[in-house]
What does this fold into?
Amino acid sequence: MPTLHGVTYRDLHPWKRELLKGYAIRLPEPLWQDGRAFETDYLALGALQLVIMVGYAWDDASGPTFDTESTLRATLIHDACYQLIRLGA
It folds into this structure.
């Protein structure tokens, strides 16, 4: 079970990675002030925190960026945020 930059995952196909340990990141500023939150089976977004839950799958880097150890955490957060945008969060 590899862990890089605090992200514990396993390789998964057709997705590239699956989160094996929950991952949380504190946001630099509040998204909203009225106590709202948005939650799915694998993602929870509060005013100051994004939580990505065990079992979340993502496809690593795309486009001109290569999949490397140094991009793992960024691709996880990027894919989770864009999924939340598509869901209307």
